[in-house]
Amino acid sequence: MSPLDTDPALMAAIRDRFTHVETCPFAGPRVFFENAGGALTLKSVVETTATFAAIPDNQGRANAASHALVSVIDRAKGDMRVLLNAPDGKIFVGESGTELLFRMLRDACLGAPEGGIVLGSTVEHPASRSAAARWAGVSGREHVLIPHDDALGLVTPEAYAEHVTPDVRVATILHTSPVTGMAMDVGGIVKAIRAVAPDALIIVDGIQHACHGHIDIAALNVDGYAISPYKVFSRHGYGIAWASDRLTALEHDALAGGPEGNWELGTRDTGAYATMSDVVAYFEWLGAQVSDAEDRRDRIEAAAEAIHAHEASLTDAMLHGIGNLPGLAQIEGVTVIGGEDNPAREGLVTFAHAERPAVDLVAALDAAGIRVHTRKADHYSGNVLTPLGLDAAVRVSLCHYNTLDEVRTFLAAMQDLEKAAA
Predict the structure, then answer these.
(1) pTM of the entire predicted model
(2) Cys staple from 35: which of 88, 260, 340, 399, with CB 3.0 to 4.6 Å?
(3) Considering the domain 47-281, what is its CATH architecture?
């Protein structure tokens, strides 16, 4: 059990650090279970964004304001190294996490030795799957997709081991699925790849995983990792990537005569960098509340552990019920994607109802003041839903600032809808 489950004062303090926790500025009071579509934003991020949006100066000038902006960016990169546990390599911002995955996969495919294949899996989000398919084709390579386990909603290291060959030049891995909610064993998958193709360039989509707190680049032995800050308590408008020195050494778009190894094109938003310092500070603060750790990285690890435990409590209650409220697993006609008891689940439950279309359930829950989302069997989610014979499903995505009381509200609403349909 997490301290977040047992300390109401701590949960109140956590929720107080975020905007629009209980009320939508457009629709009024609501429970926010659409975190996979974009997490709540830290109040400090909103304040930081406003502060830097008002500053007219650019980086790289000979004045105090410009020097201060450069210092903010350097500090933010250092903070992100702690969050990601990435002592080497390059950290940089781009248009979005998706755009950065496209860039890194382009450079990997165009810069890898000729021949061979690009390896991925069918569970991946199109951010990596589409990028790998495009640049595999441009570079004259076959794009091989490993089938994921439909029942578990994930792909295993064993599945990679069965398909990896010595001619793998580039490989992609999804850290956590935004459709099934399952986290992959990235470390195990990397070992399976490197055992057969040690020089493969490996790029990881960490967009859905980042809000759960635990990213350890140094332990993963990969070449690229991308996140979308709006899914990890910051805001829209930019993405963050880490690239290994090996990936950085390949040719990529850059200004002629510019600094060697630079990934960024044009002047970047200092405020974007600064808001990631706010995110790191939040993880450190939370880690200090749930542990006695003094080291920054140790506090982040402690926060991640508490987050994982609390989100497991929330999803367990959602699936198996609270008090006299039945969970989703007890509702007749409900199918839980990835299974009811899957230890790989990270704060997300996707389900389908045999009698009620997903879009109708989402609308009914919205009317009851509960924000969830329809995942359709389209280019985003068809790779997961179509093999299951589903045209759509309901995604309920939680975060560590959500509470058991909010889960009770959701289950009570589901019970009311079941009674109304009887």
Answers:
(1) 0.96
(2) 399
(3) 3-Layer(aba) Sandwich (3.40)
